[in-house]
Structures are given as structure tokens and as C-alpha cells.
Amino acid sequence: MSYFRYLFVLLTFFAVACNNAPSEAPATAPVASGDPAIDDVSALIAQRGDDHSLYAKRAELYYEKEGYDEAIQDLQRALSIDSTNVVYHHMLADVYMDYFRSRLALRTMERAAALYPERIPTLLKLSEFQYILKQYEASFSTLDKVLKLEPRNPDAFFMMGMNLKETGDTTRAINSFQTAVEIEPAMVDGWISLGQLHASIGSPLAERYFNNAIDEAPPGPGAIIPLHAKADYLRDQGELEAAKALYKQINRLDRQYEEGYFNTGVIYLKQDSIEKAYEHFNIAVEVYPLYIKGYYYRGLTAELLGNTGQAKADYQHALNLAPDYTEAQQGLARLAKNTQ
Prior knowledge:
Strand content: under 5%
InterPro entries: TPR-like_helical_dom_sf, TPR_rpt, Ycf3
CATH class of the domain at 273-340: Mainly Alpha
Number of helices: 19
CATH superfamily of the domain at 273-340: Tetratricopeptide repeat domain
Structural class: mainly alpha
Keywords: Repeat, Signal, TPR repeat
Signal peptide: 1-17
TPR repeats: 52-85, 154-187, 258-291
Pfam families: TPR_11, TPR_16, TPR_8
């Protein structure tokens, strides 16, 4: 159930109001979308407008293409036909969450949990959303319900650890993550969390836990997350060559992983290998053209190399993507001052 484990550092959410029940959307199919798969389902809906599964299928297709409004409308229609379908509630909650409508996502999961108060996947998802919205006590309460139903549920202990970590109870968080991996040794994120918490308190056990995460990860690209976690740990411990070797290993597994190039560049910068740092920041922004930090650091290394034109262009590019980026603003001001 990796969905419960990867979401927590990736999203920023905004609160909005929500009705207590999904509103009914029009039954008519939309005009041609230009996507053959969507249009095929729309044609079926035109023939069988009371088939909730067709609306759900089209919603899934829209969701995959980030057509959030259309996905929401179709899921609302599906739920107006079959209001007790828990899969539709879960999907609607996911769409709301990815559409930065976290309060609506939470209300949707609260409805699903009211319909199915003993369904463990629903309760776990609700606890996750409560965690995301910093409703830690509510999340603890939901997890208690899970553990009463299934006392050795590893995902419940993992989520318990996430809540305890955020509330500052490091010791109990470690105990919860430890219980989670004892129940499910293949829980990569549990091992990573243990490594990070032990690192935060200066424990020498940290590296062992990162190694366990790597050992339990699937081969190939599936190992990138634990490798990155260990590389960050080694970098923070000052073991720059070992960290750099891991970042490079990551990019051998995935040549489109911009963070690997970026972090290698940062280490070269710390080692005063400015040209090599520039090369890696350059690759990072080529791989991911919206990489704000990549442009700033490429600009910084260009400035250090005396290429003020490139530096100015990169600082400006970073500001075009993030107008409040203080370091990029300072970079432009520094260049302007030095050219006076």
C-alpha cells in the first residue's frame, strides 16, 4: 500500500469549502475531446447513460490527463447513480487532493468511512488525509480504529509513525516504524523513515536502516528512492565521494532523474570543481526544463566561471518560474553591481 507512504513530502494543499454530498452532474456526454479513448467511452455513455461504471472509467481517463474538472463531474455523476460505491469515493478524493482541494478530499473520505466504518483501506486513506491536513489527533483516532480491527496492520503503524514524527515524539515514532518493518520487512519507506529519524538524533544505526531499505527495494529504478535517501545521509555526514557515487548510480538507473545530476553538481561545487558542477546543473535543466533550482545553480556556477551573460540569463529564468526566489534576485543584483 505504497500510496500511504509516498505522498507526504510532495504536495502543498489549500483549504476550500465543500458540500456534504456530491452534486449530480449532467448525464449528457461532452463534445469530442480529441482523445480516442475518452471519446470511445463518451460514445458508450451516449447509449447507456445510466451506467455508472462508464462515468467512472471516463473519469479515470480524464484524471490521468489532469482533466480534474471533467473527472470530478463524471465521478459525481457515477456516485449519483451508485452512491455507496467505495471505489468511486476513493477516486474522487484522489482527484480533489491532486487538484489542491484538500478539504473536499477529506470530506469525501469522511463520507466513505461513514458508509464503511470497518473497511481498513478506507480508514487508512482517511487517516492519511487527516495527516496531510495536520489533523493529527483525528488521524490518531482513525488509526486506533484500524488497529482494533487488525492489531498488526503495518500501514497503520507506519502512519502512526508519521503522525508521531510530525508532533515531535521521535522516540515513539521510531518505535512505530520499527513495528511496521517487523510486521512487513519489505516496507522500504519504513526503513527509510527509521534511517532519517536515527540520523536526526545522531545514531550510528542510521546507515544500517538505509542499507535495509536498499536491500528490500525492487531492482532497477525501484531502488532510486532508498539510494537517494542514503546518498543524502552520506552527504550530510560529509562523505561526499560516497554520496556522489550513489547519485551517479541513480542516474545510471534513470538518466531522466534530474535530482541525481543536481545533487552531484552541488557536491562538485562544494569541492570547488566549478566546471564539473556547471556540467551537471546544465544536464539537470536539460532533463527538466522547469527545474528552478537547477537554473539558479547553473547561473551561480556560470557567474563563478566569469560567464556573466549566462549567469544573468539563468537567474532571470529562475525568476520567471519563481518571481519570489530571493537567491536569484540577489544574483541579478550582484551582477548589476559588479558591472557598474
